[in-house]
Fold this protein.
Amino acid sequence: MRRRFVIEAVMVATYGHLLVPSRPVDYVVPYSSIAELYDMRDGSDPVMDNPDDDGHVKEKIMELIAFFEDSLNRKKIEKALQVPWRESSALLLSEEIHFTVVNAMDNAQYGEIFDPIETELLLTGMKLGIPLLSDQFEFQDKLIEAEVPVQVYDIEDFEFAVEEGISAEDLEV
């Protein structure tokens, strides 16, 4: 069974182990986080502190942008962008890794606590009933503090989430 996770596109470029999962995964990505890749590519600010790591991650960002710009993938994304909350058809990176792009829409419900991309991530997780993957401890703490009804895994627990993670069905009583 393919495991689904809501994630920011840049994390897939940043954390190489996400590209070699032990089981099939579907990364659900709000479109706004794909748009953020272009800002990171074109910006002068480093993505990583270490210059060697920064160069490597920027190269991976370029590869990910090229993947999303592939003509077939671009058509699937454009179709999803026509309607709020529509999911694209699966974008196949490999046999093990699929991406689904969501035309997520920020709303004011969590806007005071979370930035727009964080809001779209958590709303996507809530709407689709799937967990988030994050490397941001502050974001995870804010989710807990605000009692947002969404499951979140730290990026370091990715293998656990893929292998033995708790699904929404497991939480139902």
